TrEMBL record:
<feature type="transmembrane region" description="Helical">
    <location>
        <begin position="265"/>
        <end position="285"/>
    </location>
</feature>
<dbReference type="GO" id="GO:0098719">
    <property type="term" value="P:sodium ion import across plasma membrane"/>
</dbReference>
<dbReference type="InterPro" id="IPR004705">
    <property type="entry name" value="Cation/H_exchanger_CPA1_bac"/>
</dbReference>
<feature type="transmembrane region" description="Helical">
    <location>
        <begin position="350"/>
        <end position="372"/>
    </location>
</feature>
<dbReference type="Pfam" id="PF00999">
    <property type="entry name" value="Na_H_Exchanger"/>
</dbReference>
<keyword id="KW-1003">Cell membrane</keyword>
<comment type="similarity">
    <text>Belongs to the monovalent cation:proton antiporter 1 (CPA1) transporter (TC 2.A.36) family.</text>
</comment>
<keyword id="KW-0406">Ion transport</keyword>
<feature type="transmembrane region" description="Helical">
    <location>
        <begin position="236"/>
        <end position="253"/>
    </location>
</feature>
<keyword id="KW-0739">Sodium transport</keyword>
<feature type="transmembrane region" description="Helical">
    <location>
        <begin position="384"/>
        <end position="407"/>
    </location>
</feature>
<feature type="transmembrane region" description="Helical">
    <location>
        <begin position="6"/>
        <end position="22"/>
    </location>
</feature>
<keyword id="KW-0812">Transmembrane</keyword>
<dbReference type="GO" id="GO:0015386">
    <property type="term" value="F:potassium:proton antiporter activity"/>
</dbReference>
<keyword id="KW-0813">Transport</keyword>
<feature type="transmembrane region" description="Helical">
    <location>
        <begin position="86"/>
        <end position="107"/>
    </location>
</feature>
<dbReference type="InterPro" id="IPR018422">
    <property type="entry name" value="Cation/H_exchanger_CPA1"/>
</dbReference>
Amino acid sequence: MLDDFPFYLGLLIIILLLIMLGNKIKVAYPVLLVLAGLVISFIPGIPTINIEPELIFFIFLPPLLYEAAWTISWKELWRWRRIITSFAFIVVFISALSVALVANYIIPGFSLALGFVLGGIVSPPDAVSAGAILKFVKVPKTISSILEGESLLNDASSLIIFRFAMIAVATEQFIFYKAAISFSWMIFGGVAIGLLIGWLFMKAHKYLPTDANADIVLSLLTPYIIYLAAEEVHSSGVLAVVSCGLLLSNNRHRFLSSRSRIQGVNVWESLCFILNGLVFMLIGLDLPQITKGLEGVSLLTAIGYGVLITLVLIVSRMISSYGAVIVTLIARNFITVADRRHPGYKTPFILGWTGMRGVVSLAAALSIPVYLNNGNGFPQRNLILFITFIVILLTLLIQGLTLPYFIKKIKLPNIYDVPREEAYHQIRQELAEFALHYLKTNYDGQVENNTSLQHLIQKWEQHIKGIDDESISQDLKHIYLDLLNQQRQWLINRNKEDQTLDESIIRRQMHYLDIEEEKLRYL
């Protein structure tokens, strides 16, 4: 392990450089990482990376899902709940069914149960890939909300399909009523466990004498504990983590201090940044090992199967996307929908084309055991792994590279959005009016003798009048940044000149300047 340590350090450096390159050339970094991993894997002498299959889900999935649940808007999730649930459950099942039927019919030795194993693995689109692409192009808020909501739930639905299919392969039977009971427990039990343990963690944050560091450590432990607890009782660990994340996210201001919230965001963004980078790099690095394990199937034939399954997934999702719109247009005559206007043909096309596969598909494929409980080898394991790799690679390359072009080319209608800058300034003014009213109502008797309070009231009065000292022009931002840098240099020189000056005082002032610079991001 120690002999390979320089290799792992180099791998992290390569990941960082490729992500920076992706941001520079405006290409989604998952595409670059997969290709880089593929190239690196063919370099002679590269260490073989082996991760225990059962650890794949536990290492990567809980924190990534938990962070996603913290960042999503519950209001948007609830508003678009029908289209989100249809994509996350119905479309995923249709994709898995399509793959199962085609694989069973085309691939020799592929039973229907094995087809559903493969279908459960490759049916969920990857949110990270879509999010990396959407950073470079503007899309209506409705599309980003639907994709974010779908990504939270489609992992659960696909893994449920995967689990049932694995049981069918191992036992060579499928008992419907037992599956229905197990399915219900996985969904409702997972949600209940997530909410219960989430509530306990919320109370722990609130009533234990924690500081920012302790709060962050607790938040890092939370998704792993919840996932493990749910999986131990055979419910859905994915739904448990997601439901807990949504609960804590929507109550964060009740049990976390401002310092814990600010520092926690930075820690979690860095952690998920590294985890996502490692996963996509692993996808490329694993190919030679997977290829060596192919038995009874030529490499060219296996590639053909991968291309076929990729086409099935793309077509089935595209048809399902337009089908969901048609169903919604019919259903709006009988039920209340989020928006009764016709979305046109462009929005469903983008939703259908945003079907890149990634983290969950890789984790699910690698989690397939080498041997069944009876000691026999798992049938078609390496072929399933290889097809999964081809699907991930092709969807990232074909859909990932063309999605920005399609978004720019078809000019999506912005029928659901209100101008964000206008809404932002309106909320700021209403907030200022509330602040001024509160100060004058509750502290009116202290205004006359408190100069600081008078200045605070004047500040919020300026907000209401539109004289906003925090909404500054780009030119002034550049001037202020220059000033902050000069102030830092002055502090550095002052610290060097006075050997008796306590350096903690200088660092405190430096921290204040950093906060001032960070504020510019929100102005």
